[in-house]
């Protein structure tokens, strides 16, 4: 079996307001790394000419654009975090920089949301690839790995078409 593995770094800020930790409820940031593992739906063998599953550029360009343009330096907030309302009232022009999640933006949830988003890109581009595993290194000592069907793990909130992780676009909220 051959798979393609791509890694991207990004900076982020977040806070977790539904747990009991005061330090997690204070807005803070991390330099994170996301690693995605892609398999081909129908790859049989190298062809003796190009000898690739899919060219790297074809497989990763949209995903890396999403991480670089939308996720890097975004502020991750739960949709019911009062800071969302604060931005609406005081800095509406920055709303597109908020990455909004159903419940706290933990690394577990982001792993599921990012896999869903990436699979939307790969499907829309008819790449023949799908992401079957994702790892997010939140800090040098904490990593979350997800394998499986993200829709079985993501909390039910709004209709599917109102969820940014179900769309093959650069959105990270319903504001962007
Ligand atoms: N299950 C989860 N628990 C925690 C998450 C999470 O996403 N999933 N996130 C946090 C906070 O974001 C926190 O800033 C990071 O965790 P922490 O363990 O404090 O990170 P450190 O690198 O400082 O860990 P060390 O123990 O110093 O190695 C908290 N929990």
UniProtKB/TrEMBL annotation:
Belongs to the PTPS family. QueD subfamily. Its EC number is 4.1.2.50. Its cofactor is Zn(2+). SUPFAM superfamilies: Tetrahydrobiopterin biosynthesis enzymes-like. This is 6-carboxy-5,6,7,8-tetrahydropterin synthase. It catalyses: 7,8-dihydroneopterin 3'-triphosphate + H2O = 6-carboxy-5,6,7,8-tetrahydropterin + triphosphate + acetaldehyde + 2 H(+). InterPro entries: 6-PTP_synth/QueD, 6-PTP_synth/QueD_sf. GO terms for molecular function: 6-carboxytetrahydropterin synthase activity; metal ion binding. Catalyzes the conversion of 7,8-dihydroneopterin triphosphate (H2NTP) to 6-carboxy-5,6,7,8-tetrahydropterin (CPH4) and acetaldehyde. It is an enzyme of class 4 (lyase). It comes from Commensalibacter papalotli (ex Servin-Garciduenas et al. 2014). Gene3D superfamilies: 6-pyruvoyl tetrahydropterin synthase/QueD (3.30.479.10).
